[in-house]
Specification:
This protein has 289 residues and is of the alpha/beta class. Helices cover 30% and strands 23% of the residues. The protein has a single domain, classed as Nucleoside phosphorylase domain (Rossmann fold, 3-Layer(aba) Sandwich), CATH 3.40.50. It contains eight helices and nine strands. The chain is globular and about 55 Å long. The structure holds ligand LQZ7MJT6 and guanine (GUN). Ligand LQZ7MJT6 binds next to β5 and α8. Belongs to the PNP/MTAP phosphorylase family.
C-alpha cells in the first residue's frame, strides 16, 4: 500500500553508490525546462531513470529522466534531470522516493527548482523567487508524503516545518544574487503547491493570493517535506514562468510551452546562481571538500 520503505530506497542507493566514485553531498532537482543545470556538472556519470531499480519514469515534456552525478564548483553533486509530480499518477511516497535515496547516498543539502505561476502582482515573468516557505494544499486533504507508517530510521513521526527552507541559504542566495547583478529579478516569497495538471481558475488564483502565496506550482513542497523529515537542508528556487491570471477580462492563457520558453530564457542566470551557491556552501562532512 505504501510504496516506499527503507529497503527499496536503500537498495537503490546502494545500486547507485556501487557505480560512482564519489558520493554526492548536494542533491539538485531540476524543474520544468531547467534540466540544463545537470549539463553543467563536470565529469558526469548519468543514469536513465528506466535503468535505475525502483525509480519512477518521467512522463512530462521538459523532464529528461536522467540522474546525473558529477562535480559543481568542486563539490560532488547529484542532479535529477526531471522530477515526478502528483498528476502523473504516482503515489506521493513514490514521487518523493529520490529524496530518501539522496539521504542514503550522503546528500546533506537539497536544492529544489521549479517553474511556477506568479501570484504576487509585483512579480514579472522571468523573476527568480527564493522560496521562504510553502503552502502544501494537497496536504490539507491528507495527501502528505509522510502519510503511512513512519520509518524512524529516516525521521520522527511529527516533523517540524517552521524551518523547512534554510534561512542561511536564503541569505546566501540574496547576497550572491546581488553580487551577480541579478537583484532586479530576484524575489523572495511563498510557494503554494497544487495537484495539477490543470492550471488554476481565476477564482483559485485570487484565493491563493489572498491566502498569502506569491507563486503557484505543482511540485517541490512534497520533496521539501521528505527531505526535512530525514534531516537534509533544503533550499528552493521558483522561476516565475507565467503570470497567474486574476482578471476575467485578461486574454492571457498559461501553457506548458510558455513555461518551457521562459525556462530557456532564464536558464543561464538560474544555473549561474545555483552553481555559485554550491561553490560557496559550507559542507559538513569530510568528503572531498
Ligand atoms: O517540475 P515543475 O514544478 O517545475 O513543473 C511545473 C509544474 C508542471 O509540471 C509544469 C507546468 O508547466 O511545470
Ligand atoms: N499550478 C501551476 N503550476 C505552474 N507551473 C508553471 N506555471 C504554473 C502555473 O501557473 N500554475
Amino acid at each position: 500500500m505504501y510504496p516506499d520503505s527503507h529497503s527499496s530506497s536503500g537498495a537503490t542507493a546502494n545500486w547507485l553508490l556501487s557505480r560512482i566514485d564519489t558520493p554526492p553531498v548536494v542533491g539538485i532537482v531540476c524543474g520544468s525546462g531547467l534540466g540544463g543545470l545537470a549539463d553543467t556538472l563536470k565529469d558526469p556519470v548519468a543514469f536513465h531513470y528506466q535503468d535505475i531499480p525502483n525509480f519512477p519514469q518521467s512522463t512530462v515534456q521538459g523532464h529528461a529522466g536522467r540522474l546525473v552525478f558529477g562535480t559543481l564548483k568542486g563539490k560532488p553533486c547529484v542532479c535529477m534531470q526531471g522530477r515526478f509530480h502528483l498528476y502523473e499518477g504516482y503515489p506521493i511516497q513514490k514521487i518523493t522516493l529520490p529524496m530518501r535515496i539522496f539521504k542514503l547516498m550522503g546528500v546533506e543539502t537539497v536544492i529544489l527548482t521549479n517553474a511556477a505561476g506568479g501570484l504576487n502582482q509585483d512579480y514579472k515573468v522571468g523573476d527568480i523567487m527564493i522560496v521562504k516557505d510553502h503552502i502544501n494544499m494537497p496536504g490539507f486533504a491528507g495527501n502528505n508524503p509522510l502519510v503511512g507508517p513512519n520509518d524512524e530510521r529516516f525521521g520522527t513521526r511529527f516533523p517540524c516545518m517552521l524551518d523547512a527552507y534554510d534561512r542561511k541559504l536564503q541569505q546566501l542566495a540574496q547576497d550572491l544574487g546581488a553580487e551577480l547583478g541579478f537583484s532586479d529579478f530576484i524575489r523572495e516569497g511563498v510557494y503554494c503547491v497544487l495537484g495539477g495538471p490543470s492550471f488554476e481558475t481565476i477564482a483559485e488564483c485570487r484565493m491563493l493570493h489572498r491566502l498569502g502565496a506569491d507563486a503557484v506550482g505543482m511540485s517541490t513542497a512534497h520533496e521539501a517535506i521528505v527531505a526535512r523529515h530525514c534531516g537534509m537542508r533544503v533550499f528552493a528556487l521558483s522561476l516565475i514562468t507565467n503570470q497567474a491570471v486574476m482578471d476575467y477580462h485578461s486574454e492571457e492563457r498559461p501553457s506548458h510551452e510558455e513555461v518551457l520558453e521562459t525556462g530557456r530564457q532564464r536558464a543561464e542566470q538560474l544555473e549561474r546562481l545555483v552553481s555559485t551557491m554550491v561553490g560557496r556552501m559550507e559542507i559538513n562532512n569530510n568528503i572531498n571538500v
